[in-house]
Amino acid sequence: MATNGSSNFSFSRSYSTNSRLPLIQTRIPETEAVCHDDSTHPVKAQTIDELHSLQKKKTSTPSTPIRSPLGGSFSNLNDLERHAQKLQSISASLASLTRETGPRVVSGDPASKGTESPNKGRAAAAAAVDQHHLHHGPPTFNVSDSALKFTHVLYNLSPAELYEQAIKYEKGSFVTSTGALATLSGAKTGRSPRDKRVVKDETTENQLWWGKGSPNIEMDEETFLINRERAVDYLNSLEKVFVNDQFLNWDPEHRIKVRIVSARAYHSLFMHNMCIRPTFEELEEFGTPDFTIYNAGQFPCNRYTHYMTSSTSIDINLSRKEMVILGTQYAGEMKKGLFSLMHYLMPLRNILSLHSGCNMGKEEDVALFFGLSGTGKTTLSTDPNRYLIGDDEHCWSENGVSNIEGGCYAKCIDLAKDKEPEIWNAIKFGTVVENVVFDEYTREVDYTDKSVTENTRAAYPIEYIPNAKIPCVAPHPKNVILLACDAFGVLPPVSKLSLAQTMYHFISGYTALVAGTEDGIKEPQATFSACFGAAFIMMHPTKYAAMLAEKMKQHGATGWLVNTGWSGGRYGIGNRIKLAYTRKIIDAIHSGTLLDAEYAKTDVFGLEMPTTLEGVPSEILNPENTWSDKEAYKETLLKLASLFKNNFEVFATYKIGEDQSLTEEILSAGPIF
Ligand SMILES: Nc1ncnc2c1ncn2[C@@H]1O[C@H](COP(=O)(O)OP(=O)(O)OP(=O)(O)O)[C@@H](O)[C@H]1O
Ligand SMILES: O=C([O-])CC(=O)C(=O)O
Ligand SMILES: [Ca+2]
Ligand SMILES: [Mn+2]
């Protein structure tokens, strides 16, 4: 590492392969006595160092403004001071709670120290200003090694710089044939909901949903601080950390400033893509973040610590506005941790936070796509005929809908260019592809390969989708589409819902996955996850449901249930509904033609299914028609209905909204058998 990482090594390598360098003529021409260079365009540099300094133009790119207080617009003292303030702010973020000050942070890559760059003098000056700011307190006498050490901060690096860091220092990082950065997330290839902890204190005790069914497993403040210290000490022990200052929520009135401190370039690039990227000016004015993530990644929690049941811990402290990640490198923890934060902050402002995709037609008709993981939020909100607002996390306020994020996180398993061309084409330079398998030589990704995991993912900035709408905000929704991947194959491909049915299915949050493909075909596993995202909500599901009902009523939105799962029998017998058919169904919802279709009501679930729909064979619209074994159909239908019923029992005692009549309507909107 040390020698490989040294700039001298890479300099000499790029030197020898730089095609623009003059060629040395080795054969002395007969007519001339001395050997000379045959190039007509000699380089302007006098030395190799000078040559390399010419290679990088000093500009202030929007996402990498304050790396170095030099060059461009950073050459006066004011900028130097601003730079020092930024370092001080980062030092404060990284401060130990038991020692007096934060670590001594300096900006820049530690690998570049010692090289004679023309920046060196000014970098030292910046560090000196920094020191001046940091050590204003009483002198500390019991200095430990950690107090003598500098931590280098790589602040809001650009994707190109993060690529270089990842490839140089992080094993398993490769450039794919389309220019994406392939990474491995380590032992964890998905989230760890059982390792999530939320601090229960005087405030959150009453505000949050605790107990049975809740995703909020409690921890006390003291334990949080122990884990925080562990993460901070780990991060400070590193030679360098990555810091991202970014935003959540495209609604400027309710924008949240977040800081992410992480150990890996992979994590920094992931968040660069997934959060909203500040402009250069916004970053200058960033100030103190509203929330900070300390991601210690591979460094585990201490299992002797109270409340710890594994070596992984994801801890949220809403009062301190902090989150700590220990013992997992799965980047989705950061994304969904921030989503949990929004599920707390936004409802306090009377804004509904939603685990949904969102897109908008040319007539400004807006649709929300709810659904659990893998049901089609990203796939179906990415639509060449419509503007993409976002694929996964939104807010619905009095102003309309706003995306929380600045990027998309698409599933890649079996990704095919002809079926999902927009997502396929988004996997290019800047995109992080996680846990995919690629050809050793060509670096072409094999999207069908599940060797590492089935949960392969691509994280890309939203503007990589050609028809993304920037800023990612839209008017109030006209259609609310609930997606369920029903592996039992008994729900119709599409049904129109009453408001009470929409609420019933929203609170149920159903999908069915197929567990463990390793040991052959298995029974589908029903999953119920309240609000189609129980893992991320912070308050009781009825709080969000009541808000959704209120907003849908106020804006006259229609609810739909779309089964993106099985048809013609359950998993193992039937097949997954063709994506092309589901797209036709979605088109008919958007255009309004489905609203006026003829409907028939199903038994048991009482769902209104259309009898015809352009582009979709009519016989598949009623699932009963597609099953050859009618007895098996009936049996499976009743089985699913009873699973719904059992799941809903816990909600039966809750009042939804102000009005008792809505609660009763919702209760009777479930299956009847
Ligand atoms: N009929 C269908 N409708 C929708 N998706 C389908 C269909 N058939 C197959 N698929 C596949 O199912 C997957 C849907 O995943 P998608 O990324 O859209 O999930 P998601 O709802 O966004 O989940 P997450 O919240 O985990 O990101 C895609 O891989 C898509 O190609
Ligand atoms: O969070 C993740 O890892 C992926 C995702 O979007 C979800 O599960 O809803
Ligand atoms: Ca998604
Ligand atoms: Mn999601």
TrEMBL record:
Gene Ontology MF terms in the entry: ATP binding; phosphoenolpyruvate carboxykinase (ATP) activity
Protein localization: Cytoplasm
PROSITE patterns, per database record: PEPCK_ATP
Domain of life per record: Eukaryota
A GO cellular component annotation in the UniProt record: cytosol
Catalytic activity: oxaloacetate + ATP = phosphoenolpyruvate + ADP + CO2
SUPFAM superfamilies referenced in this protein's UniProt entry, alphabetically: PEP carboxykinase N-terminal domain, PEP carboxykinase-like
PANTHER family: PHOSPHOENOLPYRUVATE CARBOXYKINASE (ATP) (PTHR30031:SF28), PHOSPHOENOLPYRUVATE CARBOXYKINASE ATP (PTHR30031)
NCBIfam families, per database record: pckA, PRK09344.1-2, PRK09344.1-3
Name recorded for this polypeptide: phosphoenolpyruvate carboxykinase (ATP)
Taxon lineage: Eukaryota, Viridiplantae, Streptophyta, Embryophyta, Tracheophyta
